[in-house]
Amino acid sequence: VYDDECLILHNDMDSAVGFCTVKYSSQSARIGLFGLSPESTSQGLGRVLMSKVLSRARNRGCSRMTVATQARNIKALRFYQRANFVVTEVHEWFHLWLEELPCGSR
Predict the structure, then answer these.
(1) Are 27 and 38 in contact, with CB atoms under 8 Å apart?
(2) Is-contact 18 35, C-beta < 8 A?
(3) CA contacts within 13 A on the Cβ side of 62
(4) C-alpha to C-alpha distance for 57 and 89, rounded to whole angstroms
(5) Nearest-CA neighbor of 38 among 17, 10, 20?
(6) I need a labelling partner for 31 at 20 to 30 A (CA). Which of 23, 57, 98, 106 fits?
(7) What band does 47 get if pLDDT is binned at 50, 70 and 90?
(8) Are 91 and 55 in contact (CB under 8 A)?
């Protein structure tokens, strides 16, 4: 379940500005989480980080990489499409945040 590694992108001042977790299997890889600090967006740093992620996967012998994101997250969808990802499946996920239920509710 847990990812195998977390790649961290640092800026010129050695501060972490982005990260990506990856889970590897025999010939494929799956991105778990991908994120940039708010002040680091729209600077091409996402492309830099994705390039490093893809390169590491290729070096491990992976020929396929997958990622899941929310359909309403248009910015993420565009980012992955620009990185040559294509939509192959659409799923509906339902969430229930238990801390929002009144105490004692069933």
Answers:
(1) no
(2) yes
(3) 19
(4) 22
(5) 17
(6) 98
(7) very high
(8) no
Query: DSSP labels for 33-100?
Result: EEEE-GGGTTSSHHHHHHHHHHHHHHHTT--EEEE---TT-HHHHHHHHHTT-------------GGG
Residue 11 neighbours by CB distance under 10 Å? 14
Is 100's pLDDT higher than 90? no
pLDDT-derived band of residue 35, with 50, 70 and 90 as boundaries?
very high
Average pLDDT, the chain: 89
In this prediction the pTM is 0.81
